[in-house]
Amino acid sequence: QSALTQPPSVSGSPGQSVTISCTGTSSDVGNNNRVSWYQQPPGTAPKLMIYEVSNRPSGVPDRFSGSKSGNTASLTISGLQAEDEADYYCSSYTSSSIYVFGTGTKVTVL
Amino acid sequence: QVQLVESGGDVVQPGRSLRLSCVASGFTFGNHAMHWVRQAPGKGLEWVTFIRYDGSNKYYADSVKGRFTISRDNSKNTLYLQMNSLRAEDTAVYYCARHGQKSSPYAMDVWGQGTAVTVSS
User: Fold this and answer.
1) B11-12 and B115-119: which strand pairing?
2) Contact indicator for A87, A49 with CB cutoff of 8 Å
3) Banded model confidence at residue B103, pLDDT cuts 50, 70, 90
């Protein structure tokens, strides 16, 4: 199972919006709506930000939103803040009943 | 509060074995499936293995299949990862993570702080 493809980095100024893509195949991202997103600031454990493509757990700001089209899922951060600077990973459940993570994207707030 | 605490990480030689533990607290451990996820130094997250709430089904990444075994003891609120025939490429921080239920299905909604494994001669 190959890792899902994400851009290595994205950046934006405070208040702007950034979007991170996550491209898989018809066996994972395109197969179901079980895509999740995780935020990992340097030196810390990952934190769940989005589940089932577009749902936010309690406590996650509504600046974070998710969507999916075909084999590509996306995470959008609106109204970018300095505290959003971190690595972000997508993950998908697959048709083989296993999970796969994306390659990761570093978000930089300029 | 809801918490996962991993332990057992160490420096080991290639070909040797190691067992990691993850103790859960603040929730009903026996009601949740669990995952192990690892992160090599400077690299991304890699899903390793999953076990259902009752241990009835287990799934593994191809990279560890046949060498690693996940298990759990619900009476001790503890998840395990037995790692055999360790290789240099198994060097990583290993995280245990809780599988979400109704509040966040098919996602890993609680993570431990990780335990470091280094495989080196």
Assistant:
1) parallel
2) no
3) confident
Judged by a CB distance cut-off of 8 A, whether residue B42 touches chain A is: no
* Residue B55: strand, helix, or coil: coil
Contact criterion met (CB below 8 Å) for A96 and A53: no
SS (H, E, C) A31-83: HCCCEEEEEECCCCCCEEEEECCCECCCCCCCCEEEEEECCEEEEEECCCCHH
Q: Express each pLDDT in A15-71 by its tens digit.
A: 999 999 999 999 999 999 999 999 999 999 999 999 999 999 999 999 999 999 999
* B109 near A CB under 8 A: yes
Cβ of A105 under 8 Å from any chain B Cβ? no
CB A109 within 8 A of CB A80: yes
Burial A84-106 (b: 16+ CB within 10 A, else e): bbbbbbbbbbbeeebbbbbbbbb
The Cα B13–Cα A107 span in angstroms is: 36
**A107 contacts: CB under 8 Å, gap ≥ 6:** A9, A10, A11, A12, A18, A20, A77, A84, A85, A86, A87, A88
Closest by CA position to A71, among listed A2, A16, A5: A5
Which candidate, A48, A82, A69, A59, places its Cα nearest to that of B109? A48
B residues 56-95 closer than 8 Å to A (CB): 59-62, 95
| Beta strands B18-25; B11-12: pairing state | unpaired
Nearest residue to A66 (alpha-carbon basis) of A102, A14, A26, A12: A102
Task: Decide the pairing of beta strands B34-39 and B92-99.
Answer: antiparallel
